[in-house]
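Illustration 12: Aminotransferase class III-fold pyridoxal phosphate-dependent enzyme.
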Amino acid sequence: MSDAAATSPNNLDAFWMPFTANRQFKSNPRMLVSAKGMYYKNAEGQSILDGTSGLWCCNAGHGDPRIVNAVSQQIAEMDYAPAFQMGHPKIFELAARVTGMFPSGLDHMFFTNSGSESVDTALKIALAYHRARGDGARTRLIGRERGYHGTGFGGISVGGIVANRRTFGTMLAGVDHLPHTHLPEKNAFSRGQPEHGAELADELERLVTLHDASTIAAVIVEPVAGSTGVILPPKGYLERLREICDKHGILLIFDEVITGFGRLGSPFATEFFGVKPDLVTLAKGLTSGTIPMGGVVCSKGIYDAFMTGPDNMIELFHGYTYSGHPVAAAAALATLDCYKEDGLFERANEIAPYWEDALHSLKDVPHVIDLRNLGLIGAIELEPIPGKPTARAFEAFLKCYEKGLMIRTTGDIIALSPPLIVEKSHIDQIFDTLRTVLKEVA
Ligand code: PXG
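Figure caption equivalent — predicted structure in token form:
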């Protein structure tokens, strides 16, 4: 039996794949069977360079023995511990370690199992916080066009993706949206943060005038929007949002599911942009994608507002069976060790200029209409084939895979986010492959 036959399932039918064109995939599957460092291996034995950290999550690269050992030891020592009214040491240690990576004042952490749960948790904390302070009329949530905040009803309500809004009904009531900040006519081919568009934050003032601040609980934004095609915050934009929120007593939530854990070359976008939100949602890089885990970091002021009333009362009526799972906690602690011991955030920061130059070297390739980058994120926006949106980028995705490179596409935008262990030689391989492929798909 060939290796490929030994590792191929004989029934692809039963599994309903997420966010996937099931029939297309099943007619020509791309099956990954192992991973180490910067590379996957597929069922045919071909090495596939990981240009996307899995789905923006494997920031420490694949198969680090420190994480593998921590997980195996933990599952043998204690596989599970109840999360309600009981505790285990590692999760307290993890909360202290993660909050210790934030500026002081962001001191508490709630645990979830995914980015979607983190978003719903943060929105619920925001609502419950205002209520706990006797300001319960603040129930309105503000998101942003082209925002992605996962797939829960809260997340799709504050998110700004038309396919969700078309498909899944009326969603949460009392939600409004800021405009997105993608201004290609002014900012195309910017290196790093774009110059134009800070004034788009003033739209929050317009929403305050429309709804009145006393009805608004929170604003949620991704500091850098990832999923909808890498949309960067114009210079001064996040600072302005913070100012307007402060002025009106509105909480600011940063969804750092993608930007957290070194993606921008600093621990979090919070530090990178020097803007301090009230709540931060996390997932993905928390465990380098190894075991599902997410979390919400919140300010001391928010936590303290709940710690009133009789001390036998549950302060926040929320949680999951797997909030703070011991195996995930062990994975996260070992992941933080990898980041620290190997200086991976600093590394990402050091290699980011090389990344930026390599990305922008594609400027003259046919059909490239924009290139955007920040930290170890890159986006290549392609001109859609007339009448066939998404087709050009998807063909590029298939051709890259054939040539041993994994990229992500959304619409006609290619998004790149390699593990933070990426070397210059990998960056060369990524952009050499893309240059060849983009000429072929032209
Ligand atoms: N918030 C943000 C900002 C995200 O990017 C979520 C929440 C939801 O996380 P979970 O763990 O529930 O999936 C995300 C997820 C892509 C891609 O290719 C992005 C995500 C997930 C899968 C693919 O852009 N982001």
